[in-house]
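Two entries, shown back to back:
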Amino acid sequence: MNCRTESIVPTDTRELRLVSWNVNGLRAVAKKDPSFVEVVETANADVFAIQETKLQEGQIDLVLPGYYQTWNYAERRGYSGTAVFSREEPLRVIRQIGAPAADDEGRVCALEFDTYWFVDVYTPNSQGELARLDTRLAWDATYRAFLTELAADKPVVTCGDFNVAHQEIDLKNPGPNRGNAGFSDEERESFTRLLDAGFTDTFRARHPGLTGAYSWWSYRFNARKNNAGWRIDYFLVSNDIASRVTSASILNEVYGSDHCPVELAITL
């Protein structure tokens, strides 16, 4: 299944193509076929955001002609990390949101552009037995307040691995997974509060009843082959620009990670 949709672009506006991908280790993806650079070149996006880079500064020499590179590294080696590659140079960058338990993990790259904020996020996982649920919920609350503050200045586009399947339609097996990390009532309710704060889940808004649309699959049990997945990677936008979305897609033909990229086209 390929969830691409057709785009209808007004002639007097500029359509932006935006891509987000949890690469689960950039150095590994850079060596695969196709390589990370080839994936970026094929996508031809205005902004390409990644999560879970798992590296520190100087550990990769990534050549992407035409793109400005914005990185946020975790203090812990081989862990977390985010990056954004943008054709436009950001006016400023924010890398910490004031969440003490996770602000040293490289989880946010917020880039200000002329007409909008672009925010790449890798949300903390609640872990087995929900061992890190309190940290996760505290992060969610801080991130929600952070986005709300940005949105008071300019419209916001935020993307990344939010580590939650919001509704039952967003994972293959909701019953057995209820209460597990990524599908606990607490995490789902927290995501609802984020949407209620003034943001739209662009994929679900475009495809309200589409089943089998996932962005992450376990490496076990042939999950990807059987499409036993979860939709935990999102593009959210401020409600006041939701009508400008022209397409929202899951690029499940792209391999190299246990996640696949997600894509948004929007006129701004």
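entry 2 starts here
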Amino acid sequence: MQTQESGVHYSRWDDSSRDEVSMTTTSRAEEASCCSRIFQKLCTGKLGIVMKVLGGMTLFWIIFILGYITGYYVHKCK
């Protein structure tokens, strides 16, 4: 068995084949779970596909506009 200071408690029952693992939560673990929930919500499923398409379109237009402005000033007639 592990000590309680590690945050994970493992116990094995002798009369059954199931193991029981319990974890104590800390503020750092809560932050990780919050970030994990946000990631799961925004990056998976139909909403994730929409976010990736919008992000790709936004990136395309930013690169297009920067290229247009740069090309204008580079090839500008004097």
